[in-house]
Amino acid sequence: MKITWLGHSAVKLEADKTILIDPFFAGPSQNLKANQRQGIDFVAVTHGHGDHIGDAFEICKENNATFIGGAELADEAEKFGLKALGMNIGGKIAVGGVVFNMVFAAHSANIGSPAGFVIEMNGLKVYHAGDTGLTLEMKLIGELFKPDLSLLPIGDTYTMGADMAAIAVDYLQTKKVVPIHYNTFPAINADPNVFKKKVGAKAEVILIAPGDHFELK
Ligand code: NI
Ligand code: MN
Question: Which residues surround ligand 1, an ion (CB under 5 A)?
Answer without folding.
Answer: 49, 131
